[in-house]
């Protein structure tokens, strides 16, 4: 009888330890409250005495307002680093009317600091503006993010696609607080930001050292500074 009780107690302890392994508690500095991070997947594997957790197939991690899904995930408890690969998607819902969605082939995400990196084929972030029929899309080879997806720094072959045109740049910085995307010439490159814009039957092309795109749905505009040049095409409608 005593042996059975010991076995039962042992099983309970192991089960509890296993559950704790997939339930991480972290402190979100921005909100200063405790949040639970839960990782799930089709199959789970524990390595290195519980320090590393591997999830394979339909992997998902929920951390506060951020939800990450991918084919596979690896979580390292020692450095709080989550690595995701294969059809990565991150959804950040701070404002339910204006969610942010990020897509990539690979991602790294620090559970504690909410900082991370996206890279690989078709890396992009979509910002759904309230009252707008189409999202603002930011494409790049590499995108670094902070505070969930509150700020983004994009590098290499950057494109900002809007309902009114497309802006091209070597790098761009997005700030959700004021809904702006700042693009400027990289110090090591001669390329300057360019914008292809169309509105009210007009087509325009602009080039400048620096462009700031205000993405707010009620006041979309581009402010250009530093050697601004461009041209505009207009179509006359004959009735």
UniProtKB/TrEMBL annotation:
Name one molecular function that GO assigns to this entry.
Answer: glycolipid transfer activity
A Gene Ontology annotation in the biological process aspect, one of them, is: lipopolysaccharide transport
Q: What is this protein called?
A: Organic solvent tolerance-like N-terminal domain-containing protein
Q: Name one GO cellular component term.
A: outer membrane-bounded periplasmic space
Per UniProt, the keywords (alphabetical) are:
Signal
Signal peptide positions on this chain: 1-28
Mark the transmembrane ranges: none
Domain called Organic solvent tolerance-like N-terminal: residue spans:
39-120
Which Pfam family is one of this chain's hits? LptD_N
């Amino acid at each position: 009888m005593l042996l059975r009780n010991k076995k039962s107690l042992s099983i309970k302890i192991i089960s509890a330890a296993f559950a704790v392994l997939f339930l991480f508690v972290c402190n979100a500095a921005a909100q200063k409250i405790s949040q639970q991070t839960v990782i799930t997947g089709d199959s789970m594997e524990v390595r290195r005495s519980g320090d590393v957790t591997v999830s394979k197939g339909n992997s998902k991690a929920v951390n506060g307002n951020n939800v990450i899904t991918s084919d596979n995930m690896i979580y390292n408890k020692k450095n709080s680093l989550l690595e995701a690969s294969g059809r990565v998607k991150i959804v950040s819902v701070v404002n339910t009317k204006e969610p942010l969605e990020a897509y990539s082939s690979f991602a790294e995400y620090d559970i504690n600091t909410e900082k991370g990196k996206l890279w690989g084929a078709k890396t992009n972030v979509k910002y759904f503006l309230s009252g707008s029929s189409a999202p603002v899309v930011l494409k790049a080879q590499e995108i670094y993010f902070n505070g969930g997806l509150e700020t983004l720094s994009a590098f290499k072959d950057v494109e900002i696609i809007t309902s009114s045109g497309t802006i091209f740049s070597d790098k761009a910085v997005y700030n959700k607080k004021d809904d702006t995307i700042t693009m400027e010439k990289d110090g090591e490159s001669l390329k300057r930001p360019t914008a292809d814009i169309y509105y009210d039957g007009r087509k325009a092309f602009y080039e400048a050292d620096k462009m700031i795109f205000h993405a707010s749905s009620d006041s979309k505009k581009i402010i250009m500074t530093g050697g601004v040049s461009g041209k505009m095409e207009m179509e006359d409608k004959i009735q």
